[in-house]
């Protein structure tokens, strides 16, 4: 099960389905405060989305919580507008952008840049299961990357971004 929340947003996905539910966090809190012991239907999400691409393996918010990045087990990455996802409705929400990792390997990590600087906030780093690193913006345009060049080089196995410097390690 994957539960992702930020100060104002909430989503839930379990490992056995290819669906995610979305709602503002204040609505979830209010629903549980108002719930009675005999309530069977405590919370109704704003929206639920099923994916035909399979099961998501990574879900992160990016770009000041305005984009939801969903990585899948077969290497696809989708970008959604959170304004649409967190509004009530049953209509289909199509992704803004779709990306397929160069090696078709699933993402091991997707790290949005925590910076508030306009030229950096839209960037994210994707580490695939085979150790390749790609730097992308939220439109899924490449800004570079790297990979181990020879057999003596170890592939990248994990990353982190220092928020105060927006440096990748």
Low-pLDDT segments, ≥5 res: none
- Biggest β-sheet: strands ordered side by side in the sheet: 1-2-3-4
Q: What letter string, H or E per element, gives the SSE order?
A: EEEHEEEEHEEEEEEE
* CATH-defined fold name: Lipocalin
The CATH architecture assignment turns out to be Beta Barrel
Spatial gap, N to C terminus: 28 Å
Strand content: 35-45%
Shape: elongated
Domain module tally: 1
User: Over all CA atoms, what is the radius of gyration?
Assistant: 17 Å
CATH class: Mainly Beta
Largest sheet, strands/sense/barrel: 4 strands, antiparallel
Q: Kindly state the mean pLDDT as a whole number?
A: 79
Helical fraction: under 10%
Question: What is the compact description of this entry?
Answer:
The chain has helices at 25-34, 82-85, and strands at residues 2-5, 9-13, 19-24, 47-50, 56-62, 67-72, 76-81, 97-100, 107-112, 123-128, 133-137, 142-146, 161-162, 167-168.
């Amino acid at each position: 099960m994957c539960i992702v929340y930020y100060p104002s947003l909430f989503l839930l996905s379990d490992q056995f389905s290819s669906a995610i539910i979305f709602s503002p966090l204040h609505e979830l809190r209010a629903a549980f405060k108002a719930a009675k012991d005999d309530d069977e239907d405590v919370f109704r999400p704003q929206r639920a989305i099923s994916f035909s691409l399979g099961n998501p393996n990574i879900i992160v918010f990016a770009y000041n919580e305005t984009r939801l990045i969903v990585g899948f087990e077969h290497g696809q990455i989708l970008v959604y507008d959170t304004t649409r996802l967190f509004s009530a409705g049953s209509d289909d929400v199509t992704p803004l952008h779709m990306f397929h990792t160069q090696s078709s390997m699933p993402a091991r990590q997707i790290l949005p840049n925590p910076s508030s600087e306009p030229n950096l906030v839209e960037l994210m780093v994707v580490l695939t299961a085979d150790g390749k690193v790609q730097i992308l913006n939220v439109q899924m345009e490449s800004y570079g990357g790297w990979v181990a060049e020879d057999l003596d080089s170890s592939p990248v196995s994990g990353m982190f971004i220092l928020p105060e410097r927006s440096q990748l390690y």
